[in-house]
Amino acid sequence: MSSNTVALTINNLSKEIKKIKGIKDRQKGKYLSDLDRLNEQYKDLELPDYFTTQYNQLNKKGNELLRDIRGGKHADNVANDIPIYIRYLKASLMDFEGKTNNLKYYLLSFYLTAALFMAFTPQFYGYILPLIFLVPIFLGVRGCKKKIYKWILYEYECNTSSNYDSSYLD
Question: To 5 degrees, how large is the angle CA 155–CA 161–CA 165?
C-alpha cells in the first residue's frame, strides 16, 4: 500500500502553517522543517496491509487539523495541536518501518526492576513503601502498553543521531 495520502496531507498542512499569523516564526520554522522531513519519508514509504487502519486514522487526524486551521480556530489552539500531530507522524513512521522492536527490551527491564523493587523493598523498609509505589508502577505499565510517544521518540533519537536533544520530551 502506498502512503501518498498522508504525504499529501502533510504537504497541505505545511502550506496552511505558512499562512498562519499567530504562531512565532521560530516555531513555524521548526514545524515546517519537521513536516518537510516527514513528507519526504512518507513519500517513499510502502505500507503492509495490516497497517491500513492506523494509516487511515493518521490521515483522518491530519485532515481534522487542516479543517481546524482553515476554519479559523484560534492560533494558540492550533499551535498546540501541530506538535501533537507531528509526534503522531513520527511514532507511526517508526511503526510502519518496524523500528519499534527494540522497545521490548526497555519494557522488559522496566517490568523486571518493578518486580524486584516490589519483592526486595519490604525486608529493608517495610511494607508501606511498595504500597506507595504501586500507583507509579501501575501508571508506568499502562504507559508501556499504550506505547507513549516519549518512549518511542527516545528510542528513535538515540538510535539515529549522535547529538541527542531531549528538549521535546519535557
Answer: 75
| Rounded distance between C-alpha atoms, residue 159 and residue 170, angstroms | 19
Interatomic CA distance for residues 10 and 32, integer angstroms: 10
Q: Please give the C-alpha separations between residue 163 and each of 34, 157, 158, 159, 166, in angstroms, as whole numbers.
A: 17, 9, 9, 11, 10
Rounded CA separation 86/162 (Å)? 22
> ∠ at Cα 144 (142, 150), nearest 5°?
120
Distances in Å between the Cα of 28 and the Cα atoms of 23, 35, 67, 102 are: 6, 10, 18, 32
Residues 42 and 10: beta-carbon distance below 8 Å: yes
**Looking at the DSSP assignment, which residues form a beta bridge with residue 46?**
2
pTM exceeds 0.70: no
Closest C-alpha to 148, from 107, 112, 97, 116: 107
pLDDT digits (tens, 9 = 90+) for 106-156: 788 888 888 888 888 888 888 888 888 888 888 877 776 666 555 555 555
Write out pLDDT tens, residues 1-54. Answer: 555 788 888 899 889 888 888 788 888 899 899 999 988 888 888 887 888 888
